[in-house]
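Subject: Luciferase-like monooxygenase

B.,
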Amino acid sequence: MTSILNNIPYSVLDLATVVQGQTPADTFPNSLDLARHAERLGYTRYWFAEHHNMINVGSSAPTILIGYIAGGTKTIRVGSGGVMLPNHAPLVVAEQFGTLASLYPGRIDLGLGRAPGSDQLTAMAIRGENMNAAFNFPQDVERLQQYFSADNEHSKVRAVPGEGIDIPIWILGSSLDSARLAAAKGLPYAFASHFAPTYFLEAIALYRQNFKPSEYLDKPYVISCINVVAADTDAEANRLATSVQQFIKGVVTGKRDLLPPPIDTMEGVWNYFEQEAVEQMLTYAIFGGPETVKQKMQAFIAETQVDEVMVTSHIFDHQARLRSYEIFAEAMKR
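Prediction pasted inline below.
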């Protein structure tokens, strides 16, 4: 059964998580260190997610971080998981990613989402009078594709750089709407199963059933993002995972804080309802030692048949985080 993992690409989703006692200025060099580590371990991509107004997430400007990571690595693909397109003018996104792809040819991915990446008040601060921009998401994706197209050279509005550059576009989502859009446009689909597992299986089935081959992709391609905390033993992994459990509890309760250190037990830290909500959000999470990670990944791939898995790991200690990604890579290659 080992072969079920051997041909599955594995990648990294980084939120530039800020841990207690540190600032984003400390976080970003750690991201670069992790990206170099991931590159050596055979990871395929390193993506940043756009979030705003969150003190524990430093990836509010993913385009800048993509340039930072791509400039400090050599082969790994770097991209957005994703850029929240309604927050931006498609032309500006085309120019920014055209610039990145000109600097780092063949290595830049553009993942697009329609959510604000924050709360509604913050979305208003970002979008201003353009609060209905999410309804234009399909048309804005088409505008981006047009700006990247070589056929746009006769248009009065052109993306320079960007025009004529092959920049893969991915549709990100956590709902059936995103699955329908990705299928209709013949684009690869990345699902946010690391925090929104409810519609995961239904969405990827819908995407596959309705997929229309395009000039970009001839058959469906699904990335699933999952939470992973791996360590040398199950006990140590479960202890380290209390950091992400506390992190998600902050999301559930609206009381966000910097990523806390691990604790011996979550008993007394969360109540029954908080625990239920956290565990539901962490449906697709793997915590364990090498053999546990391998077995759970085999079961996950067998159930979902995803084409690629993307790992996010909220681990307090940087060295433990590096070790977690190392163990996961070993599990995928054994």
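The domain at 3-226+306-316 is CATH 3.20.20.30 (TIM Barrel).

T.
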